[in-house]
Specification:
single chain, about 375 residues, alpha/beta, 7-stranded mixed β-sheet, 3-stranded antiparallel β-sheet, binds pyridoxal-5'-phosphate
Length: about 375
């Protein structure tokens, strides 16, 4: 038996993080919005073709800023997936708006556009497009619906750095997009995030909100002599230490994606026979999309299969994992008056998905071992 445990995830390291952090001491600026923050923002702006980028201490924070920018409040409705991370919901719940959870599209595990169409109404103010596993949500339909109903799209591109839809980077397609640099993401700085502002209309207010509600940015640019309180805001910076760490990683983004692509494609080819036999379904990237290979998963044929396969792999030192507990049927969802039966497909597919290890330290040997064990499970 192989003694080594194949971990589900390991944080990426480019190797340059420590030397960049040393430079923070030379700069003598520690709080944020300093040289490293500016370089990391510039990198993202150029690399993703975003109009403006503000680094934040988390994606959750960036999502909260979008809630303030959209002036969401009581009486408004926000459409969002139930199959997502908590932050997609909680950032908007605190605005006082009503959360309207939508059904899953089982082919992509993204939000179902038909359900969005059903639930859109006069009170709908925003649609949250979360791009699951680094593959774009159904933006073909969602952008059309948002246009017809004059509703704002906010992209939760926490998992989407470097992925594309129609040759555009995820997070830059809607007026507002959010990225995460949490250590479980492809590129990280421990904790961190970014707000991508793709519509001029939001530029100045975004900066005020980010600057604790002040127009300090205007002063730095020489547009005003002193600064004061002008907006609702909070303390949203990323520290210079984190920005230095982040830049050290961003400069290896293409290499990082290449490694992940290789692992993803190896899984795909090694597991294709089992898929053709109908044992499970593998993820597909879809038309006009580029993935960043954030996750690799199987959709098992039944809840029972998923349970048994996960245990089988875990017993063999392979950390296979489930993913989200749907938000609408979580404790908080139920307290908002929602019921498990409201979104039956979400309930079912949340229990049929199984994620396999995918990180940059995974060797070909590791991937082959995972595939062999998966194969032996179905051939027992
Ligand atoms: C990771 C993640 C977040 C939260 O990111 P933080 O940077 O940890 O706040 C939000 N939404 C989705 C879809 C995520 O995967």
């Amino acid at each position: 038996m192989n003694e080594k445990k194949i971990l589900f995830n390991e944080p990426f390291l480019s190797g340059k993080e420590k030397s960049y952090i040393d430079e923070v001491f030379d700069n003598n600026i520690f709080d944020g919005n300093g040289p490293f923050s500016k370089r990391a923002q510039q990198f993202l702006k150029e690399h993703l073709s975003s109009a403006r980028v503000l680094l934040t201490h988390s994606c959750t924070a960036a999502l909260e800023i979008t809630g303030l920018l959209a002036r969401l409040g009581p009486g408004d409705e926000v459409l969002l997936p139930s199959y997502t991370f908590v932050s997609t919901a909680t950032a908007f719940l605190r605005t006082g708006a009503k959360l309207v959870f939508c059904e899953i599209d089982p082919n992509t595990m993204n939000i179902d556009a038909e359900d969005i169409a059903q639930k859109l109404n006069k009170r709908t103010k925003a649609i949250i497009a979360m791009h699951y596993a680094g593959i774009a949500a159904n933006l073909e339909e969602i952008t059309a619906l948002a246009r017809d109903h004059n509703v704002l799209i906010i992209e939760d591109a926490a998992q989407g750095l470097g992925a594309e839809w129609n040759n555009k980077s995820l997070g830059t397609i809607a007026p507002l997009g959010c990225l995460s640099f949490h250590q479980t993401k492809n590129i990280h700085c421990g904790l961190g995030g970014a707000l991508l502002i793709n519509n001029e209309e939001f530029f100045s207010r975004a900066e005020y909100i980010w600057e604790r509600g002040t127009n300090r940015g205007d002063m730095t640019k020489g547009l005003s002599k002193k600064y004061s309180w002008v907006e609702m805001g909070s303390s949203y910076y990323l520290t210079e230490f984190q920005a230095a760490f982040l830049l050290a990683q961003l400069e290896s983004l293409d290499e990082n994606t290449k490694t992940r692509k290789h692992i993803f494609e190896l899984y795909q080819s090694e597991l294709s026979i089992l898929e053709r036999e109908g044992r499970f379904r593998l993820p597909t990237i879809g038309e006009n999309r580029k993935s960043n290979y954030h996750c690799f998963y199987l959709i098992c044929n039944s809840i029972d299969d998923r349970e048994k396969l996960i245990n089988y792999l875990n017993e063999r030192n392979i950390q296979a994992q489930i993913h989200y507990v749907p938000l609408h049927s979580s404790k908080m969802g139920v307290s908002l008056g929602l019921d498990k039966d409201d979104l039956p497909l979400t309930e079912e597919y949340a229990q049929r998905i199984l994620r396999l290890p995918l990180h940059n330290n995974l060797s070909e040997e590791d991937v082959l071992k995972v595939c062999e064990e998966t194969n032996s499970f179905f051939r027992r």
